[in-house]
Prior knowledge:
Elements (H helix, E strand, L loop, with lengths): L10 H11 L12 H9 L2 H16 L2 H36 L2 E6 L2 E6 L8 E5 L7 E13 L1 H4 L5 E2 L20 E2 L4 E13 L5 H4 L12 H33 L2 H15 L3 H19 L2 E3 L3 H6 L4 E4 L11 E6 L4 E2 L8 H12 L8 H12 L5 H4 L2 E7 L7 E8 L5 E7 L1 H8 L3 H16 L2 E10 L11 E9 L6 H10 L3 E5 L4 H11 L6 E3 H5 L3 H7 L5 E3 L3 H13 L4 E5 L5 H6 L2 E5 L5 H6 L2 E3 L4 H42 L7 H20 L22 H28 L3 H22 L7 H6 L5 H17 L1 H6 L7 H22 L8 H4 L1
Parallel strand pairs: 9-17, 9-20, 17-19, 18-19, 20-21, 21-22
Antiparallel strand pairs: 1-2, 1-3, 3-7, 4-5, 4-6, 4-7, 8-22, 10-11, 10-16, 12-13, 13-14, 14-15, 15-16
Helix pairs in contact: 2-4, 3-4, 3-8, 4-9, 4-24, 7-8, 8-23, 9-23, 9-24, 14-15, 15-17, 19-20, 23-24, 23-25, 23-26, 24-26, 25-26, 25-30, 26-30
Amino acid sequence: MNAPDTVGLTEREAAQRLARDGPNEIPSLGQRNNLKVALDILSEPMFALLMAASLIYVVLGDLTEAIALSLFATFSVSIALVQEIRSERVLAALRDLSSPRALVVRDGRRRRIPGREVVRDDVIVLAEGDRVPADAWIVSGHDLSVDESLLTGESAPVRKHPAPNEPIQLLRPGGDDMPCAFSGTLIVRGHGKARVVATGAASEIGKIGGALGRIRVEAPRLQSETRRIVRAFALVGAIVSVTAGSVYGLARASWLDGLLSGIAVGMSMLPEEFPLVLAVFMVMGAWRIAQARVLTRRAASIETLGAVTVLCTDKTGTLTENNMRLVHAATSDDTWEPSSGALSPEIQQLLKVATLAGLQEPFDPMERALQDVWRRQDATLASVFGGRELMEHQGVCPERLAMLQVWRESSNGSTLTAAKGAPEAIAKMCGLAPDAYTSLLRRAGELAARGMRVLAIATLEGHDLASSAGPFRLLGLAGFEDPIRASVPSAVEECRTAGIRVMMITGDYPATAKAIAQKAGIHTAEVTTGDELQGLDAAALRARIKTCDVFARILPEQKLRIVEALKANGEVVGMTGDGVNDAPSLRAAHIGIAMGGRGTDVAREASSIVLLDDDFGSIVETIRLGRRIYDNLQKAMGYIVSVHVPIAGLALLPLILGGPLILTPVLIALLEMIIDPACSILFEAEPAERDVMKRPPRTPTERLLDRNLVVSSLTLGVLALATVGLVIAIAAGRGGSDTDLRTLVFVSLVTTNVGLIFAHRSLAGTITDLLNRPNPLLGSGVAAIAAIMALIFAVPAARDALHFAPVHLDDMALSICAAIAFLVAAWGLRQFPKLLHNPQRKA
């Protein structure tokens, strides 16, 4: 078998193991099967009211009505069941995306896969900041340290020591120098490779029943607000229902009819659609955002996206392509650029030391760029790393912005220390004289002003790392270029139009940061460095951050201070990050945005959303989608309020004017079949408003159903009730039976309901917007409504079961004209922003 640290499994072997052992995951306690979904739906109050009404019809001896009502109840439950199951499937797909990613070796090549696809005997690559995807035996590594507090409760990381011979079973977690890593633990230092020995429920975390990375379907604030709204409506509905039933029973001495009347009123006023709409919008919203290559880890972030006022982004890989190229190398006597051709001996030595200061299998784009130079020069990496053994690795730290690696020559036992890092840090390590120090920083500044990322390279013969200055010898500078993404300038401009301020926070050289910011269109009048930030107190930082949009040479822990200062200034903050030390700032920001490609698992788990392609344009697209989702959710909620007004009004009409029930429980159930898909599926698919990225961010404390929207919705509902009332008045003037009147009222109510759908399609548009906005589901939705109506009236048995009379052409024409008149009147009211909710004018 091939060595485990070079080849690993083949894709075929991995697929066989996955089919045999199952996915590498612990069964989620929160995941609902179809039976659980059905039981949850059957426990809804609306279903109970439908079945109660059905039983009353059985007692009254009206079996036809009872059967019809039961069928509608079953169909209504089926619609809800289909929507819920669809949401659960979307959630399952999102869970797959949100599971920790793993870097495995398959067919001799590295592949990034979902953690759930890791199998026994996979070779996994471990690096600082990764979460270990499965229990594994460490076969190679350097300076590995792991946080196992998830399993042991001990907060101090433990050292790991590789061992070539794998045991029959793993040791228990805890303790230093053991050659095993456990699922769910975090690599806090070093790198290595390991062979998987246990996955899923067989892992240590599986044995104790741990469950990681669950997605929450509903946003806590929206969920609590929705529950408050439903409770308020339910309380009012219950009072009106009991009162109506009692009055009807007393006035007509028929308590069963009174009970039916009360149930009809209760059904007409119960807004059971609210929770369903919220769940559908949050789940489908997360799915839509995922189509833009962005994973929503916390659904609460969807509502916050539309309120973001400041977007803090790093540079490399987000604003730029993260495709570093070495474009400049210079020693004291020689300069090289790609057009220069072959490397001189001095430049070769500079680049060899720079390569030795990095990993043999690098993750860092600049280290990969250095290795690419050797490949382009028809040289092998063996000419750089061959004959040397790595003795020590020291990574970048706040005290020294440089990376050091110590190598031993196999031939003679001598040692060489290679260092690369920030020019100022390398200069101090070399103990440069003031003139040389100034000259080095001036040269670095010139390269940085051209948009390059600049590293200084130094070497030390020997291993005297205890000395802080003097022994290192400066070799020269290397300049790397990372082109800005083509989409970034327009995305930054779009943010500015949307009232969102874009700030760049980078660890790069100030001149480089300024050059890239200028290309991106970010305001560059001021640039603040990490050293300057360190000297600012909280008040001074709050003042500086109001005018400065570019921060350079910033350490990850300083990002947290920036986030806290912005929040103290009242901003709603979106912050990007990819490293272990970025986790606090990602968690502190209102929207933490982790990098899915180059980011660590720690950063991803601390974030609200994850960019799967690390592209700044994806952030802007996500904000656009977040605003669209919130807009459409408001439209759906407003529609629900509006549509219940005419239904409740017609249910109460017999109590006020006398006469038979116009809307029986059966007819209300039939209407619910139209309302539920309309307010969830149709409105969720509505396109974004034309001004969605031209308005300022909304206030974070804005209620989903604020007073203006409630007043607007009730106004449209009253207008719809008046429209149907006008139809009733016309019908009464023509004469006819109660059955004819019920038929005409129901048809008019359905057509007016379609008008309500169109009236809520745009919160601030013209009548053309209401009619012509491209919603791919609207046409089929209206056609489905028309088909249901045609079926009801074409089948005599169905028509008789609902106590309908045949529909005449003049009745249908009257109903359609009434709906058109309603829509024109609704658009006319749009011109009065004080009457109807109009965010465009409000902005």
